């Protein structure tokens, strides 16, 4: 079975690192995937933390990441209307 934090729930890569830990030791851990940038807390439900229970429609294949469309940039802010 997967041990939490060893495999990314979303892309199943093994490039997971600990991003943060609870101020009181052992309460929670935030993990971060270096491939798909998914981050999750150890206390989240299994569908967010277990690769086998992560919803299939939202899974990512690391080989496909380079082929994903780039999100459009935010356009420049409009000038305020001067005719009011
Ligand atoms: Zn990932």
Report on the biggest sheet: 3 strands, antiparallel
- The topology string of helices and strands comes to EEEH
Dominant shape: extended
Q: Could you give the distance between the termini?
A: 65 Å
| Ligand roster | zinc ion
* Number of distinct beta strands: 3
- Rounded radius of gyration (Å): 18 Å
| Number of helical stretches of at least 4 residues | 1
Order of strands in the sheet with most strands: 1-2-3
* Low-pLDDT segments, ≥5 res: none
Look at the structure and give the mean pLDDT. Answer: 91
Helicity level, as a percent range? under 10%
Q: Given the helix and strand composition, which structural class is it?
A: mainly beta
Strand residue content = 15-25%
Could you please describe the fold and organization of this structure?
- With 84 residues, the chain is mostly beta strands.
- The protein has a domain at 16-64.
- 5% of the residues lie in helices and 17% in strands.
- The chain has one helix spanning 46-49, and strands at 16-21, 29-33, 39-41.
- A 3-stranded antiparallel sheet has the order 1-2-3, with no helix packed on it.
- The radius of gyration is 18 Å and the shape is extended.
- Zinc ion (ZN) binds next to loops.
């Amino acid at each position: 079975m997967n041990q939490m934090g060893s495999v990314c729930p979303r892309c199943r890569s093994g490039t997971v690192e600990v991003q943060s830990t609870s101020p009181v030791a052992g309460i929670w851990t935030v993990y971060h995937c270096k491939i798909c940038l998914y981050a999750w807390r150890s206390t989240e439900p299994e569908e967010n933390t277990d690769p086998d229970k992560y919803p299939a429609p939202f899974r990512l294949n690391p080989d496909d990441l380079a082929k994903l469309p780039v999100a459009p940039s935010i356009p420049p802010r409009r000038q305020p209307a001067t005719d009011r």
